[in-house]
Structures are given as C-alpha cells and as structure tokens.
Design goal:
Elements lengths: L4 E7 L2 E6 L5 E5 L1 H4 L6 E7 L2 E6 L8 E7 L1 E5 L9 E5 L10 E5 L12 E2 L2 E5 L3 E5 L5 E9 L8 E10 L4 E2 L1 E7 L4 E8 L3 E2 L5 E8 L8 E15 L4 E11 L11 E5 L5 E2 L8 E6 L5 E8 L1
Antiparallel strand pairs: 1-2, 2-3, 4-5, 6-25, 7-24, 8-23, 8-25, 9-22, 9-24, 10-13, 11-12, 12-21, 13-20, 14-19, 14-21, 15-18, 16-17, 16-20
Length: about 300
C-alpha cells in the first residue's frame, strides 16, 4: 500500500481504503484477501484505525491476556480461535505434581455419562441428552442415583435446569449437594428442584441455589437424580431426564452438552495438551492441595 493511501476501519473485519485527504474510495479489503494459506496470517480489526495481525491458529494479538488462580477456575475466554492453554500448578504441600489430572470443562457441568457414584437406584439408559433412572430392587421413598460433580466450589451460585417425565404416578426431582459415602445418604443442606409429577410427558424443572459447605471429609459433591420422589412407588418405577444443564450463575442459558478435556501434569507443575473453549471455561483438578494458574484472553 502506498503512503498516499489511508486506511479507515469501518467495522470488525471490514476495511475501506481511501486516498489520503480525499473521500473517494480506492478499494475494499476483506479478510479473505489477507487470510490466505499462502500468507498464513489473519486480521482482526479492533477499533477504528487499528489493525491487529496474528499468525493463523493463534490468538496472541486478538485480546488482552489476563491471569486467574484458584482451586477451581471459572473464566470467560473471549478468543473464538481455539488455542493451547497456558496452565501450571502450584502448592504449599505438593512438590511433585506428576499424575495430577487437570480438566477443562464447558459451561454445562452435568456429565450425563459420568456413571453412578452412589445411591439405591440404577442408571438404566443414557443417550446423547437423556438419562433414565429406575428403582429396580424394592419399592421405597426418595430413591436416587448420584453422579459426581466437578468444577464447583462451596459458595458458588449455580442453576440446574432440564426436563423430566415419570412412569406411573411417580415424581421427578433433582438435588445438588454433598453425598456421604460412609452413610450413603445426603449430608447437610442442598439445592432442591420442585418435584414434578409428569406421566410420560416432559415437564420443565429449574432451580437456582448456592453450593453448601462440605459437611465432612467423607463427602463428595454430586447431583442426586431421583427415580422416586415424594412417596412410595412400586418396584420398577423410573424417571427420564432430558437436557439437564448445571451452570454457574443464577440464570438459564441455551442447552449445551457436557464438554471435558483432561491432561496429566508434569512433575514441575506445567500442564500440556489443554485447549481453549469459548466463551465459558472451567478448570479443576483431582487434588485439593494444588492451585491452578491460568493465562487466558480477556476484553
């Protein structure tokens, strides 16, 4: 481009070129003209008269880097281009970080394929977005299967939503709280959705609450998926749940399937192999004694 030409940026990824000092347009430049395999570069227009150029597949110039640290990290990474995450672990207790698992989740923290971690009921069928829980052994009241949850801290505000349908005159119910492995029961307070009576047709359920404090070291954080709620039901009764979503915050957003990526830490605490997901990204480990440190892209 000659020095007699002037760039005027109209909007993101739209560039208009004018002759210096004049209003007559010389040409338009589109990202397609620049973002070619031959050049291996991409453009991102940030503001009027500002262009940032970065190598294809990277987002170094797209946004401003920020840092976050914690036992569990919740961030909004605004980079739409997938990129490798800069993750490391630190600890006042652990010196060798080998074999510590670090997982990156999306916004939905309900793992429909997580498998039963406890409870008296059975998980009978799982599809891409549906899960059926049944009471196959004996009749009873408030029978459930538990599925472990990760990526949450006590004190976090969360919202659970989805749809449920029941066999017979049974009721559906979801609860989020602590499961005591030594007693096989709920422990302490919990988040409790309204009980839904629905015979073979889906009814909507939703509840917002705060993750309670962990009652004791025998407890794990779970979602209680009920096969029987509020009353005694016959053997074989079941509830099918669809599009269950557990997300951080006090509002329901569009359903997204569970997303998880896991990497194993190196001895020095560096973590390789995790990539970004935008906009909501949650990181957690399987070791409560370590802190996760993350560099990510922020407005």
């Amino acid at each position: 481009m000659s020095v007699s030409e002037k760039l005027v940026l109209i909007a993101e990824n739209e560039i208009k070129v004018f002759e210096a000092g004049k209003k007559s347009k010389i040409k338009d430049i589109t990202p397609a003209e620049i973002n070619t395999a031959a050049f291996d570069f991409k453009i991102r227009t940030i503001a009027e008269n500002t262009i940032k150029v970065f190598k294809a597949g990277q987002a170094a110039a797209e946004t401003q880097k920020a840092t976050a640290s914690g036992k569990v990290i919740h961030v909004n990474d605004v980079s739409s281009a997938e990129h490798n995450l800069n993750v490391s672990l630190t600890s006042d207790v652990v010196s060798d970080f080998s074999r510590i698992k670090v997982s990156r989740f999306g916004k939905n923290l309900f793992n429909i394929n997580g498998g039963k971690s406890g409870g008296q009921s059975d998980i009978m069928n799982v599809t891409e977005n549906e899960i059926t829980v049944a009471q196959n052994l004996v009749a009873g009241t408030y029978r459930f299967a538990t599925i472990s949850l990760y990526g949450l801290n006590a004190g976090d505000t969360v919202t659970v939503s989805g749809w449920a349908k029941c066999s017979s005159n049974n009721k559906a119910n979801l609860r989020i709280g602590w499961y005591d492995k030594s007693t096989n029961q709920l422990a302490g307070s919990f988040i409790n959705t309204p009980e839904v009576l629905s015979n073979e047709e889906y009814s909507y359920i939703e509840k917002t609450g705060i993750i309670p404090e962990k009652p004791n070291d025998n407890c794990i954080l779970v979602i209680f998926v009920y096969a029987i709620a509020d009353g005694t039901a016959e053997k074989g009764c079941s509830v099918t749940y669809k599009d269950i979503q557990l997300e951080v915050g006090n509002s329901v957003t569009e359903y997204e399937s569970f997303k998880q990526q896991t990497a194993i830490s190196n001895a020095d605490g560096t973590v390789e192999g995790l990539t970004s997901i935008s906009p909501i990204m949650i990181l957690a480990t399987d070791n409560e004694d370590v802190t996760i440190n993350l560099k990510y892209f922020k407005d």
